[in-house]
Amino acid sequence: MTATSEGGFLGHTSAPYSNMVGPFGGVTAATVLRAVLDDPRCSAPPLSLTVNFAGPVAEGPFTIDARPVRTNRSTQHWMLTLSQDDSVATTATVVCGARRPTWSDTEISPPAAPPAESVEVADPPDFPVWMRNYEMRFVEGGGPLSGQPREQPDSTTTLWVRDTPARPLDFLAVTALSDIFIPRVMVRAGRMVAASTVSLTVYFHADAAPLAGHGDRPVLATARAQHFGGGFFDQSAHLWGADGTPLTTTHQLVYFKD
Amino acid sequence: MTATSEGGFLGHTSAPYSNMVGPFGGVTAATVLRAVLDDPRCSAPPLSLTVNFAGPVAEGPFTIDARPVRTNRSTQHWMLTLSQDDSVATTATVVCGARRPTWSDTEISPPAAPPAESVEVADPPDFPVWMRNYEMRFVEGGGPLSGQPREQPDSTTTLWVRDTPARPLDFLAVTALSDIFIPRVMVRAGRMVAASTVSLTVYFHADAAPLAGHGDRPVLATARAQHFGGGFFDQSAHLWGADGTPLTTTHQLVYFKD
């Protein structure tokens, strides 16, 4: 991405990250976040991100408009749009803020999983191509793209995952990884189903230093749906570091067509 | 609220909904949603809402600017700000869209709870005053505002709740109810702790007709934190109709000072 003005960026989609229609949503979310983190006005690391997928992003150039609408002593609030040909394709809000040492506790636990190195790396499907950028080791519920072609009573997917080629974690990497899961409706149905994320929210629980310190080890990712109906379902997911540290909790609402 | 222009509204805070600082966040969220639903350009009922609390809202007038930035055949995407004296106090995005009959399933279950009528109504505290607008029957983990003045190993709160005076459910009511829970850190600590919501997301699972059909019966609401640390925690919550129908799933990131 190239800065074209204060808060204005020009970018271009990347063919290796193509999804069914347009780019992998995790990369769109990371691109929006990058516009904030690269902006000289950005005052603190990200706390939360919400991205709404308003329309398909076509292969080609796009512009991002990023506005810090309120900067406080401890938090900064951004509003963003990603547009193509003057049509808004993505809206987003980002909240940045400094973490301080406080009492800490994690109430939920990582899912049961054998060590990453003992789980076979899945052979990525030919389509969608974005999956070739991730090394996935499925522990549970991989769905039809990972050789699980049958209905399941539960939509849970758990996998060890990292970028390939491997690279250390940062805020952009965990943002994209927060959208790594194939649509839950496919896991339930055991077959391909048309589906696309409507809205994605990521809460960041780890700061830049622990993310960098995690290095390029695989992350333990788990997701499940809560309710399907009326053409939509929601998904809640967690990303855990190799040592059991919570990295992100993330939620999305997804359109599906059965 | 009064419409002052296309997408422009003038409102005023309501003293009975005051919180520690400014209004109860659930009412701010409902107010933002109302600006969308009252707009003649609104094409469909709400699917999801994210509200970021950028700064305190002072008692007095405020303006809302609501823009439908993308309208598709099936979804409509809005961006909003709520401002006082030209300073943005709240940002929000809303996605609207029509639900269609599809395969439906709910993977999670309502929390165990006795029938609402068998649970005693809690005596609302003197402060914050907004709680006097809700009839709360605590099943588990009411925290320091409901006579539970001790530390807890788990932040879960479950309660039956409805507006008082009672009124039928609608999108605005379930939005406000999605923020009904006192901060999870208070439940864990068993005492008052300074805390305020940074970002709130609501996914709507029930349409207008089933909400109206629910009438004014109490809703079963349950919330828990997932991770506390660095001065922030996240909360995931579910609202269930009296018959066990999922109404909303809702998530928030909250600042706290210990």
The tally of beta strands of chain A, per DSSP, is: 13
The CATH homologous superfamily of the largest domain in chain A is named: Acyl-CoA thioesterase, double hotdog domain
- The number of helical runs of chain A is 4
Structural class of chain A: mainly beta
Helical amount of chain A: 10-25%
Total number of distinct structural domains of chain A = 2
If you consult CATH, what is the topology of the largest domain in chain A? Porin
Provide the β-strand percentage band of chain A: 35-45%
Strand order of the largest sheet of chain A: 1-2-4-5-6-3-10-13-12-11-9-8
Largest sheet of chain A: 12 strands, antiparallel
Question: For the terminal residues of chain A, how far apart are their CA atoms?
Answer: 37 Å
Short structural summary:
By secondary structure, chain A is mainly beta.
Descriptors for this entry?
homodimer, 258 residues, mainly beta, Porin, 2 domains, twelve-stranded antiparallel beta sheet, 4 helices, 42% strand, globular
Structural description of this entry:
- 2 copies of one chain form a homodimer.
- Chain A has 4 helices and 13 strands.
- Chain A has a 12-stranded antiparallel beta sheet.
- Helix content of chain A is about 15%, strand content about 40%.
- The N and C termini of chain A lie far apart (about 35 Å).
- Chain A has about 260 residues and is mainly β.
- Chain A is globular and about 50 Å long.
- Chain A has 2 domains: about 1-100, Acyl-CoA thioesterase, double hotdog domain (Porin, Beta Barrel); about 115-258, Beta Barrel (Porin), CATH 2.40.160.210.
- In chain A, a hairpin with a 3-residue loop joins strand 4 (about 60-70) and strand 5 (about 75-85).
- The model of chain A has no long low-confidence stretch (mean pLDDT about 95).
- Chains A and B meet through strand 3, strand 5, strand 6, strand 7 and strand 10 of A and strand 3, strand 5, strand 6, strand 7 and strand 10 of B.
